[in-house]
Design a protein that fits this description.
Distance between the termini: 26 Å
CATH superfamily: Acetoacetate decarboxylase-like
Largest sheet: 15 strands, mixed
Order of helices and strands: EHEEEEHEEEEEEEEEHE
Radius of gyration: 16 Å
CATH class: Mainly Beta
Helix content: under 10%
CATH topology: Acetoacetate decarboxylase-like
Structural class: mainly beta
Strand content: over 45%
Number of domains: 1
Number of strands: 15
Number of helices: 3
Length: 233
């Protein structure tokens, strides 16, 4: 698993990330991988799915940055959640703040976006190796509200012990397009577990949106179902 961050506390203020781009791509993965990596406190979803979600944020308290996440699609209680297995960030200050304030397991990386009229391509490199190459092609317009994003769960060492940190970013979309996803490089171990295998593309989208990371309100015990293991902070 990815090295998990230590959360400094639960008092990180809201963070505005205006005029951001979000690329999201969903792939089926083997059920055996999902069962091995998803904490016991979360419900699996069928079919097993790995979601690659990339943000390109031109403005933040730490300057411009890109963040790429590998997320196992799950449910916490009845709510859909993306359990973050690994993350990469190209801005050291942003990576540190996202880790200590919100629990993202963000490791340094080089992230390159290439945007053309008919494609978007995202490459993530680390140590001279390409650990992700994701492409979305043939954009088709969608209504801004047609793309949905599940909430985020980050496993972190918190003042209460190991907890799943629950984030519900506000994403106010202004434009959205459907894409045809293609994954030409994926180094599973770099994204949290060598058993990850996003073998079948399902769907993808690109969205222009204002993102706001809201203060943490709830955490969950990783070994107890959300109905009884959720704690208000």
């Amino acid at each position: 698993m990815a090295r998990r961050p230590k959360l400094a506390g639960f008092d990180a203020p809201a963070v505005a990330l205006p005029r951001s781009e979000i690329v999201q791509a969903l792939f089926e993965m083997p059920s055996s991988a999902r069962e091995a990596i998803v904490p016991a406190g979360l419900h699996p979803t069928n079919p097993a799915a790995l979601v690659l979600q990339a943000w390109r944020c031109p403005e933040s308290p730490w300057g411009a940055f890109s963040l790429v996440q590998a997320r196992a699609q799950t449910r916490s209680g009845v709510r859909p959640r993306g359990f973050v297995l690994g993350a990469a960030c190209d801005n050291a200050a942003a990576a540190s703040a996202l880790a200590t304030g919100f629990g993202f397991p963000a490791a340094p990386a080089e992230i390159r976006w290439q945007r053309a009229y008919d494609t978007v391509r995202i490459e993530v490199g680390r140590g001279g190796e390409t650990i992700l190459a994701l492409e979305g092609a043939d954009p088709e317009p969608l209504a801004a509200g047609d793309v949905q994003f599940s909430g985020t769960l980050n496993l972190a060492d918190t003042p209460r012990g190991w907890r799943l940190v629950q984030l519900d970013p506000e994403i106010r979309a202004t434009r959205a397009e459907r894409l045809r996803p293609k994954l030409s490089a994926f180094r599973a171990a770099a994204w949290g577990d060598s058993r990850l295998d996003p073998y079948w593309p399902v769907s993808a989208s690109i969205t222009l949106a204002d993102i706001e990371l809201l203060p943490i309100r709830f955490v969950c015990r990783p070994d107890e179902l959300a109905f009884t293991g959720t704690e208000r902070v």
